[in-house]
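Task: sequence design from structure.
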């Protein structure tokens, strides 16, 4: 007789997915070692092409190191959004926002890089890195990150997937030096984790009818 498995209900699985939020405000309460280990275990059990398991995790709890991570994240975001502002891409993104004062504040938050500096205030940042010689690296590590984000929800914590300090090679080099990452590894992302100040509201999603096709693109599935 096959060994019985303890499976969660579909309702519980759905709640994990639905309650995942991008949390950017944390309390000062540290994340327990037990919770950190469970989050890392969730990442370890992600799928990977040919079972390569290219991911490596650096759990950063040192406040000074985290502050430096926040500075690098802020620089990366500021550079990116300033470029979008100059090329008018940012204006297009907010063209439906009629309140000019809110629009101005949004531009300032993005172009200053403050939108990503919260990383420095998180009690825990997990740097997700991976072996450069693995073809499926971005997909494998993304699966590991999503596993960790869902475990964070199950633990009653909050998290945000942060790519700002990893997109520009100049910022990645700063991170690699700060965290002493060997050359054969690439930094994929940071995951900022902590106890939430409050649960953010869910962001709107497109309806399934808008994003799902049947058999061929453009043919309705419904």
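Answer:
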């Amino acid at each position: 007789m096959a060994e019985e498995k303890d499976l969660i209900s579909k309702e519980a699985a759905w709640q994990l997915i639905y309650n995942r939020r991008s949390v950017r405000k944390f309390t000062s309460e540290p994340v327990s070692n037990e919770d950190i280990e469970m989050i890392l275990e969730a990442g370890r059990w992600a799928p990977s092409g040919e079972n390569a398991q290219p991911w490596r995790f650096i759990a950063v709890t040192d406040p000074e190191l985290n502050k430096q991570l926040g500075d690098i994240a802020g620089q990366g975001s500021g550079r990116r959004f300033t470029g979008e502002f100059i090329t008018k891409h940012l204006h297009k993104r907010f063209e439906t926002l009629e309140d000019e004062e809110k629009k101005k504040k949004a531009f300032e938050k993005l172009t200053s890089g403050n939108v990503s500096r919260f990383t420095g205030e998180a009690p825990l940042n997990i740097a997700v890195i991976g072996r450069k010689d693995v073809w499926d690296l971005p997909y494998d590590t993304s699966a590991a990150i999503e596993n960790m984000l869902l475990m964070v929800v199950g633990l009653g914590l909050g998290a945000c997937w942060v790519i700002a300090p990893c997109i520009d090679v100049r910022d990645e080099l700063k991170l690699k030096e700060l965290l002493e990452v060997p050359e054969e590894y690439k930094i994929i992302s940071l995951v900022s984790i902590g106890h939430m100040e409050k649960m953010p509201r869910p962001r709107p999603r497109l309806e399934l009818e808008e994003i799902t096709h049947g058999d061929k693109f453009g043919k309705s599935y419904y």
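The mean pLDDT is 93.
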